[in-house]
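Quick one, T. Sequence first:
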Amino acid sequence: MNLSETALTSAPRRETDGSAAFLVPYATGMILYVVFIMSASLLRSGMGKEKKDRVMEIMLMSVTPRQMLTGKILALGILGLLHAAIWAGTGYLILRLGGQTIDLAPALELPLSIVAWTLVFFLLGYAVYASLLAGLGALAGPNVAGSSSADFVVIWPLLIPLFFIAYLIEHPHGSVATGLSLFPLTAPIAMMMRLAAGGVPWWQPALAAGLMLVTAAFTVRAVARMFRAQILLSGQPFSIKRYYAMLLGRA
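Structure tokens:
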């Protein structure tokens, strides 16, 4: 028998079942969590040192608290993206110079749209958590008793999708996964895990990005207000209750 094969699609399709389909969302969630923590911790540490050295009070004589916080978030965010681009470009260049290429299986390949959404959710998620940790550093300072537990209180929403990572990957379109991907504090990781799994309607990441944009604007404004109060409260001991009271404008 003479058999011939004809491909009905111009490119191989991603698999939605199997170990590879589980690996992609899992790796996406873990990598984003590590990047968020590493990038936002730099701003938290910098704010703590500036409070200890009394640099913050000097800076606030020239700029407003919102301008200072926005500038620091933009600068460290761009620096983090540049750092990642340098590492990725260096690795790619080394492979090309060595005559090697990376051939991924269809199940491991991500569309360009997911890469674009990754950039959007990274920037918005970084703006939210970096501003929250910046306020924590401005209030607690470096190496203050209780500040480590407060760090966990600030970043614990990012851990929720990781706690349910197996369930979210197996049921990416369920009510739990959809709710976590739309909630601004869990959306950066939950939505990207769902997008990596595939089949998410276009309006859901757009809605999640809009909600995160509003949340980022609120947190930057609230933390900027905290900088004014932290100067007056610089001699008081740190407490989580005082942090949330100042964040909500009740202190």
